[in-house]
Batch of 2 targets.
Target 1
Amino acid sequence: MTRLPVVAIDCRLMYYRKAGIAQYARQLVRALCAWRDEARQSEGMPLLRVLLDRRDSDTAWLPAGAGVIRAVTPAHHRYEHLTLPLELAPRRIDVLHSPDFITARGRFRKVITVHDLYFMEHPEVMDAAGLRYYGRIGWSVRRADRIIAVSRFTRDELLRLLPATPPDKISVIHEAASPDSRIQNTEPRRQSTGDRRRKTEPRRQNPEDRARDPEYAIRNTQYEIRNTQHESAPYALFVGTFEPRKNLVTLLSALAAWRDMPADFRLVIVGEQGWAGGDPARLADELGLATRIQFAGRVSDAELDSLYRGARVFVFPSLCEGFGLPVLDAMQRGAPVICSNAGALPEVAGDAALFHDPLDADALAGLLRRAWQDDALRARHAQLGLARAGEFSWRQTAQATWRVYQSV
């Protein structure tokens, strides 16, 4: 009996993170299995295996058609380049897909996904561990048999910053908006003790101390958001990790420059602390915005769905994005989008977003003012956004990715 080829997708990062690259990997695995079953092409097609951290107990998201390979080596470990190849050697893997940039040594064929290369020209956005890991991008690109770039912008950056890369080695395969959690059969994420604690009603604290204590702000806001269901007041929404590239400084500066801000305006910020992200709650306090901003921290998929749908406007002033998935997520859920014109955002958003220079706080303030006050403008861009998000699908992503696997 002929042995079917095995494709393994490295999802070890999911033990530490749920957003960003981990979200891409999760949706890709689901879409690959769904498309294979839908097309009735399972017979003779490669077997799909998912490489998980041995400690990761959160497997409810895995589709039935995906097998699991447990790895002792954690994602991004300093000795990963030595130990992971030893673990994979006896597994009889034919193709290894590394969604997190860096492949592994081995006799298998190698596919990598490159999301963006901002860190190559701006190493200050990463800590030493991140630079050690992603600093191997040149080696990984050379060793890879095929490279998936998530946008034309990322492909062009690859060719500019790593000019020895053969252009025909790169396939541009767009991502798509995350599926609606209301119709997606998913289990809640694994919770730490701290996560469970934040679900309880927050303790009393002096309001003057609130902005100085981001953890209290996160706990307080999660309780308020979950219990008001966004019906008490309109809000703008930001989703992203607290790191320099996400450009929260410009967003908060824009709010400070909005002199005639309506009394009902508030900004809900969803995200967690990243590298060199500063203290946005303290900055908000210094700019006199503490009463206008609520920090929701990390929320579940269902809560994020609800936040997108309830937002009067979604704002995303990033300094650079290789794709910009939150923009499509917001559009698919009917939120009008304001975003920067940096990186791949114009490619992804098309004519459906209101764009601004990422460093122009006054321009951003002007767009926020217009969008907040102009019902017709918001309605028009909400419709444009729905249409734009519909041009991307994970089914298309899965089909194109299968073709890459078959080509190696």
Note: The two ends are 23 Å apart (CA to CA).
Target 2
Amino acid sequence: MATEVKQPVVKSDEERLAELGYEQSLKRAWSGFSNFAISFTIISVLAGCFTTYGQGWNNGGPIAISWGWPIICGIILFVAFSMSELVSAYPTAGGIYWWASELGGKTWGWFTGWFNLIGLVGVVASVDYGAATFLNALLGLYSVDLGIINFADDGSILRDTFWLFAAILLLHALINIFSSPLVARFNDISVAWHVIGVAVIIAILIFVPNTHQSADFVFTERINNSGFGDGTGGGMFWFYVLPLGFLLTMYTQTGYDASAHISEETHGASEAAAKGLWRSVFWAAVFGWLVLLAITFAVQDPAAVNEGGGTVFAIFEGALGTGWQKAIILIATVGQLFCGMAGLTSASRMCYAFSRDRAVPGWRIWTRLNHHRVPAYSVLFMATCSLIVTLPALIGEEEGLPYAFVAVVSITVIGLYIAYVMPVYLRWRKGDSWEPGPGTSARSTSGSTRSRWSGSRSRSSSSRCRSRRPPCRGTTSSTRSRSTTRP
């Protein structure tokens, strides 16, 4: 007797969103590729690999980069697969806290949401500050003097970098406020810029330097400039210093939750957002490793790089002429500008969704949409928070290295990965009782293929909530109020 196979119930994006308790308010204008593009752009190997290269160099050296990157990326990819499974089932903006609330209850959702929100503030702040640092270096190479700011003078580098940071933040806020489709188009362009840009940078670093380091140096050399431990041996190096170097990889591979935050603006979100999330991590891992190896092989004098703080600027200065340095820094700077713009998009959607569930003070303001159907006040709020958290960057060392940047990077990694892991753990705790979405392969049970949506909790699609209000408070028993994310 033939086994009856149930086909997955195909539902429109709006129907699925209504089942989750929300009305379609944001403009659904993003394609599946644009969804992938925003996460790939926020990960941005032209940002994290360049701005935090010194973190790996000073805390472990080349082995923290050549081995640390692929190993940590492999672990992160498992997290991304798990998150993809969740966004397929629950394609809603601010998805991470929603998943935790659905799977574990309101307290889990509240804490997850705040960790995610704080981490995203760190993303916007650190990426835009890194872009300002690279733009300052680029303008310095061109000896740009605007009268009130002289980029050729290193005497006020921290102040000049902060003003550039503020200007970049304002630019990104304006772009996000006035056109969501324009942001999507920029993200599409960003993918091409990153792929071609990485290829150009690798080619420059292969063919231009007079000499290159050996494979033995790149894959076995250890460096400890952290100030902790005694050299590159012993437990302190392997269990404390070297893991600090992994921050290079973990910081770069953040922000891919953007595919979930933009799911309410993506066509076919249950599948497109799921694919966009894990594919962005995979391809960033591939391109990032290639460019990091190219940078490390290009090191001419390790002692000079140590003296220069382990930064890519010190490597480029020793390996390349001024013209080639300008080319690489220009490519990286533009990539970082794309990254910061996309990061603010993701952060504002998270703020909008979390506020929609009344979990953020002043939620009535942050949930307002302008005539472009963009949460403009959420954009401004997240940009302002990013500016405030980076104010300590005005103070730094005599060499012009800010104290705040590494702190902001740490905020990003801690906040986001706690937020990423919490719903993944809750999903694991559910076991086989949990129903996957269309972006996940249907599971076989008792010889039959179950509908991906069958058995899932139904919520009344007829009791839709009004726009700009928390979803369905006190409507029907089958439609749960998402404001329960507040403890």
Note: Residues 1-8, 441-487 have pLDDT under 50 and may be disordered.
